[in-house]
Design goal:
Elements lengths: L2 H14 L2 H4 L3 E11 L2 E6 L1 H12 L4 E12 L2 E12 L3 E14 L2 E9 L6
Parallel strand pairs: 1-6
Antiparallel strand pairs: 1-2, 3-4, 4-5, 5-6
């Protein structure tokens, strides 16, 4: 499986909240660096990243991918996703994320992401 396919597989697990499917895609020393309207966040370690992912995603009633692209460029994999969320109290929300993924031995070692933050559609 090539890296864009692995990136899509990670995105599919994200949307499905398939944490058991997402975790094996991450290297143990995985690093997430995120720049969002709230500021810069870095999460070190796959297990810590999964805790944060679960805390964020489990607050939504539903999650759907509206658009996504993944391709290789300059030795990394680019993944863009526009995602729709439904929150029980806040209603519909969307975000767009742009990811640069790095791989080693078929696992994601790092994601640098730029995120719009949640906003009303």
């Amino acid at each position: 499986m090539d890296s864009p396919e692995l990136a899509r597989r990670y995105l599919d697990a994200f949307v499905a909240r398939d944490y058991d499917g997402a975790r094996p895609l991450l290297a143990d020393d995985f690093c997430l660096r995120d720049l969002s309207p709230g500021g810069f966040t870095q999460v070190d370690g796959a297990d810590a990243a999964m805790v944060g992912l679960r805390e964020f995603l489990d607050m939504f009633a539903s999650i759907d991918i509206l658009e996504a692209d993944a391709y290789e460029v300059a030795g990394v994999t680019y993944l863009r996703a526009r995602v729709h969320f439904l929150h029980a109290e806040a209603g519909e929300r969307m975000l767009e994320q742009h990811h640069i993924l790095r791989f080693d031995d078929g696992r994601i070692t790092g994601i640098d992401q730029l995120c719009t933050g949640l906003h009303a559609p």
